[in-house]
Amino acid sequence: MSLTAQQLAALMPDATQLESDEPEMESSLHYAQLALLVACLEWLWRDRSDFFIGANLTIYFSREQLKNKEFRGPDFFLVKNTEKRPRKSWVVWEEGGRYPDLIIELLSDSTAQIDRNLKKELYQNRFRTPEYFWFSPETLEFSGYRLVNQQYEPIAETDSGWLWSHTLGLYLGIQAGMLRYFTETGNLVLSPQESAQRLTEQLRALGVEPDV
């Protein structure tokens, strides 16, 4: 008996509640870097509701992958033009077939080879993620790739060593040992805490003592 698409969909299990299955981050330095990447972009785009940021969150992209338990979870990924809401994981077939538009991996001794090779091939050939970056919080190794004719090509760096992201509309670059975002005009994208501190300094410069 043949089934309609609607009948087939009704028989499929609900995958929206799949839990993430990612290991803990390598170190407190990795945690701090990941938190900074998330916080700064969330704050910059605080008036937008059309994106999702995944932080150390599993991406489920096939039912075969579920059976084999070959889970893949980038340290940081961004999906644009989607609903901004909490998710326990990113389930590709529950998200209209959408894969990340940008991925950042934080290198460590135990993951560097996988990030540079296996994951790079997966993101290029299966995910078709337009931009892929990696950064080591320990050694400060930093590279970026853009998908050109279905192949990743290195992104040329500026004189400052920054890499432009078309997806973000921002530069990525290293400052004070951390990977940060910079605007097209070269301004550092601040975190909420840095923004509050700058406002406090500006008020005090005007002779106004802010309420604590």
TrEMBL record:
Q: Does the keyword Flavoprotein apply?
A: no
GO molecular function terms attached to this record: endonuclease activity
Q: Where is the Putative restriction endonuclease domain?
A: 28-175
Q: What keywords are annotated for this sequence in UniProt? A: Endonuclease, Hydrolase, Nuclease
Q: Which InterPro entries match?
A: Nuclease_put_TT1808 (IPR012296), Restrct_endonuc-II-like (IPR011335), Uma2 (IPR008538)
The name this protein carries in UniProt is Uma2 family endonuclease
Q: Which organism is it from?
A: Thermoleptolyngbya sichuanensis A183
Lineage start? Bacteria, Bacillati, Cyanobacteriota, Cyanophyceae, Oculatellales
